[in-house]
Structure formats: structure tokens, C-alpha cells
Amino acid sequence: MNKILLCTLILACTLAVGLTAQTQEEQSDIEVLVTASRVEEPVEKVPAYVSVITAEELSASGQTTLVEALESLAGIRFRSFSGNAALAEISMRGFGENSHGRVLVLVDGRRLNRADLASINWLEIPVENIERVEVVRGGSSVLYGDNSVAGVINIITKKGAPGFDISVSGKYGSFNQNQEGVEVSGASEALSFSITGERTASDGYRDRSEFRSLAFGGSVGLDLERLSSGLALSYNRLFYELPGALTKAEFDDDPTQAKPGNDADEALSDYANVDLSLSFSPTERLLLDGNAGYRIRFIRSDIPSNFVSKFTDLTLQSAAVSPKLNLHLPLLSGNRLVVGVDGYFDQADLDSYADISRSATTLETRVRKATFGVYAADDLDLLSSLTASAGVRYELAQISAETLKTSGTPIDDAKLHHAFVYDFSLLFTPTRGTRFWAGYGTVFRYPFVDEQFSIYGFGTDTFYADLNPERGHNIETGLEVSPAKWLRFAASGYLLNMRDEIAADPITFAQKNLDKTRHLGVEAEIALSIPECVEFSGTYVFTAATFREGPNEGNMIPLVPAHEAGVDLAVHLPLDFSVGISGQYISEQFSGGDVENTLDRLPAYFLLGASVRYQPQYVPGDLEVYFGVDNLLDARYATTGYYGSYYPGEGRSWKAGASYRY
Question: Averaging pLDDT over each range in 16-25, 27-36, 609-618, which range is the top one?
Fold first, then answer.
């Protein structure tokens, strides 16, 4: 029988019977584990809207970066100033300027966010090294503290599996885009290891938008009956050019051009990380574990096009220790208590120079941020299908700045911030694959160190002693229904009232606390998957982010579109081929800094993509060959812009590649 006809018959039969209630045994045989509660648990025990991207899905998509994969999920967008994914700003739940400060990004549970205003380097984690990515939407300040206002993304890296595996991949596409990767992993009894390497480069869609990334990662693990530990090392070197923003006339004329005068703006950075984990379970009910890590980053930036030329060397050091206790108690239908401590120390040493030769130093400054938090979270199973959760956290953070040398005003000041947050929720799971949840919680974010102070080195240096942390109250409800193994629907609605959001004043450019804001939204997703036949997902997000007091009351928050929608369809054909089509729509939005809503809006845009994948079953191992076209209609659009400027997105491009695992 023709394979397509067979798929049609299977779909018809499952539609006829699949929507009836299923017993627990009829549901998926595999439970997806997440770390939304900082401990492993089945996804159906999480009172939040959760998405998981697996290594298999990353490979099948042909996507070269984690940014591309995350953008396919409901409620996640990225903005880029450089035209590449490396330092793209992530946005969730209606936050505009510096939105990445409200999303916590973790690697194996360890914080990746920087203490300064810059976004993380998404190319720091080789795609080949990713086992899965877990996305938890909504505030998680009780469990994770700073930055976790809008969501938490946890990138789980690969650990060696029994036996010996080797994987190689290569991709090439438009603008000389190329990526090469290799992974070697294995395990024997209690020991495991994984080694990965990845090179990614592109000449860029725009002039002066070239980037090159080289990343390595490795880990070893020991897993005994009641004791496990792991050591992970990684290194990344990233070079990228900065094409700058265009005026509307320049954007309309030629979006591939660089900003006139931006012929030498670029940056080079080196990242190195070491992380250690230890877990000990003396009894079935008690688990003691913790992480310790150290990260160092060297960043050299040359931006002569700035209104005051900037030539800087920045060294960022971060150290973290996060021990916790996980205790299961025989109360009612079950009780789990998590108690932990988080300690972080960040130091930034910034040297500025008069010219690119770095022969004359104009500024030497040192900034420190020390954070200490303690938290407790409890999940109580009132019934087998009803769970109540509650948690509290208290956290302190001190930010200090010290000027060692300057041609301007020296700074030697410090400020101590503190935050007390709490949350509680109810989760109802009447059947396997069905979840309903509702919750209320408070959230916070401390200022970035370079929001707390401003150092230019030419007379306007300032420590903003009156700048307060962002705080908010979040109400959320949602549901996830899987009436059949092949069908899933999830949706959530939230109301997040914030005060003291931080942004630059559009006139003075000084950092300040904004008037109260409101973030109201709905996120929805439907997914259908019939093995060997068809896979479909559709997403829709509505966001109303507005000022709720002050002179701009009722105005929209800049850089927040009201509507987002996406579709992904893959159809499996005979002879081991499959074809895919994807679409993404983003509605218009006000440009950054336009709190009065008077400037031209960034236009709405629709991106269409198509792909073909070949995965022969007769070849030993796992071989995949991929070809795809992005922005098929060559839409002209901008992912971000400030004060009426435009940072163009990428035009039509193609890529082809292959991967092989044995």
C-alpha cells in the first residue's frame, strides 16, 4: 500500500478513537523529566507551561544554532544588533529593552547570564553537545532568584551512554555560512565521558556582519548506586563585526549595507568554563546535591564609530556555589521539600583606551556583584491528582564600583539590594497527559552592574544610587491536554504587574526606574505527531504590554509585538524522504526608546521556510541529509530598532548539510 495512503488511514482511525479517555498504560511509555523545580520530575508534575527540545529534534530540523530552535516555540523571540545569533537578545512575556535580563539561562542547572548588560553567547554551547533544552515559562524567582522573571531555559548537555558513539556533521549555505561539528561519547559501568567540538562561521547577510565561532566542550561522570559526580569543561572563541543601525531611508534603499562609518566596529571574545556537580542519596527519601562553577570571559571591543570612540578590554569572572537538599516525606499522598542556598560572585574589570593601539589608558574600573540567597519550596500531594506547591526566597545582592584610573569623574560607591519573594500554585492532573494549573507569585530582578552605574571616562561618570530592583506580581493559569499519544494542546494565560522596570531615559540616556507596567498575555500551542507520517505544530501568542501610570499611561511598551504566530509542518514521504514547511508572523511594534509611541513602528513581517530531509534506513548508524531555504519570500524586516532606527533581519538564504552518528 502506498505510504501516503497508509498515513491517511492511520490518521482517520486514530481520529475516530483517539479522543476517548485513555488509561495510564495507554499513554506515552517515556516520561520526560524536567528541572522546573530544580529536581528531576515527570513533566506532568510541573504547574507551568513547559516545552522540551530534544537532540533528535535539533538534528532533524537542520538548524545551526540554539537560537533558531528556540524561536520555533510559543512566546520566544530574539533580537540581534550584530545580525548573528551569538549575542541575540531573548524576549519572553512582553519585555522590551534589555529583555534578556528577565530570562534566566542555565547549562545543566548552572547560571549562564552575565552580570553586565550584554546578552549571553548562544554559540558558547555547541549544538552537538545538547541532549535537550527545557523551557519553563513564567516567573521562577523563588527557586532561581535574579533574572527569572519571564522564564527559565535549562540547556542539558550530553553525557556518555553505554558503549561508544561518534557523530560528525557539516552544513553550508548562503553568505558562506558553514558549520562543522564532531562528538565522541561513551560509558562503561560507572564511568562516562563526552567530547564535542563545533566551528560556526558566516560572512553575514549585511556588510560588516561576519562572525566566527569555535567551541569545545567535554565532561566526565561517575555514577555509583548512591553517589554521582561530574566535571565539565568548555571553551569558546567568538569574533564578530558590528554593522550598526540604519535609518528608514537606508533600510528601504538597501538593508544589506552597514551603517556608514561602521567599517571597523568589531569584537573578539574568549570564554572558558569549569563546572563540578556532586549528588549523594543516603536514603531513598533524601538527596543532597550541589554545583560549583567558575567562568572567565575576555572581551576586546573596538567601536570607533561611537560618538566617543570606544576601545575597551573587559574581563568578566563569575563563581557560583549552589548546594541543596531534596527530602521526600510520607505526608498525605506524598510530599517533597527542597531547601537550598545560592551564592554568586561576579567581577568585571574594564579598561578603556584612547585608540585602537591601546597605548594610552583613559579608564580603569572594577565592578563587583555579590549575591546570596536562601530558598525553600514544598510540593504536597493533597490527592493523587491534586498537588499544592508553595515557596519562599530571601536574597541579598551588593553592587560596588571602584575607579582605578579615569580622565572623568571617579566612582567609589556601593549599594545593597534585597528581595523577598514567594509563590504558591495548584496542579490538577485528572488523567495521564492532562494538566490544569493556577498560581500566584512575586518576582524580582536586580540591576545589571552597568545599569547601576554609568562610566564613559569623559566627565559624566555616575553611580545611580536611587536605582531600585524590578519587582512584580504574577498570576497565571493554564492547561495541557493530550487526549491521544499523537495529539497535544497547551495554553497559558498570565497577568504580570511590574514596578520599577529599568530602561534608559530617551533624552538623557541615564538609567532609571520606569512607571508601573502591565504584561498581559496568552500563549497557545497545538502539536500533532504520527510517526512515519506527519508532524505539525502551531503556535499563537497575544501580548498586551502597557504603562499603567504616569505620563505614558496606556501607551504600549516599546519592542513588544501584540501578535505572534508560527506553524511547522513535516510530511514523511516514501524512500525515506520528508519535506517541511514553516511560517512565522510577527506584528508591528514600537521601536526601542519610544515610550511616547510617536515614532514610526517597526513593520510587521512574515517569514516562510521550506526544507527536504533524507534519512536512509538501510545505512548502518544514523545518517541525515538536509536542505532548506529560509525567508523564502525574501521579506524585508527588522528584528529590532531604537529611536526610529532599524537593525535588518536576514534575507532569503539556503543551507545544506549532513550528519552521521555511529
Answer: 609-618
Q: How far apart are CA 324 and CA 373, in angstroms?
A: 12
Whether residue 185 is predicted with pLDDT greater than 70 in this model: the reply is: yes
- Would you tell me how many other CB atoms lie within 10 Å of the CB of residue 473? 15
Which one is predicted more confidently, 506 or 11? 506
Q: What is the extent of the structural domain holding 444?
A: 3-661
SS3 category, 70: helix
Query: CA-CA distance, 491 to 76, in Å (whole number)?
Result: 14
Q: Find, among 214, 192, 325, 219, the residue nearest to 275 by Cα.
A: 219
Per DSSP bridges, beta strands 335-353 and 361-383 are antiparallel
Mean pLDDT for 591-615 is 94
Strands (E), 249-309: 266-283, 286-303
CB 196 within 8 A of CB 186: no
Q: Are 556 and 96 in contact (CB under 8 A)?
A: no
Contact 459, 409 (CB under 8 A): yes
Model confidence, pTM: 0.93
Give the alpha-carbon dihedral of 556, 559, 562, 565, to 10 degrees: 180
Cβ partners under 8 Å of residue 130, min gap 6: 55, 58, 66, 155, 156, 157, 158
pLDDT score for 29: 44
- Give CA separation, 281 vs 62, 222, 263, 285, in Å: 40, 14, 58, 8
Residues 6+ apart with CB under 8 A from 397: 146, 369, 370, 371, 372, 416, 417, 418, 419, 446
Alpha helices in 18-111 (DSSP H): 55-61, 66-70
Residue of 537, 464, 458 lying closest to 504 (CA atoms) = 464
**Going by C-beta distance under 8 Å and a sequence separation of 6 or more, which residues neighbour residue 356?**
264, 302, 304, 311
Q: What is the CATH number of the domain that holds 592?
A: 2.40.170.20
Three-state DSSP class for residue 229: strand
Asked whether residue 42 carries a pLDDT value surpassing 50, the answer given is yes
| Residue 333 amino acid letter | S
CB 352 within 8 A of CB 363: yes
Quick one: pLDDT at residue 221? Answer: 93
**Count of domains for the chain:** 1
DSSP category for residue 511: E
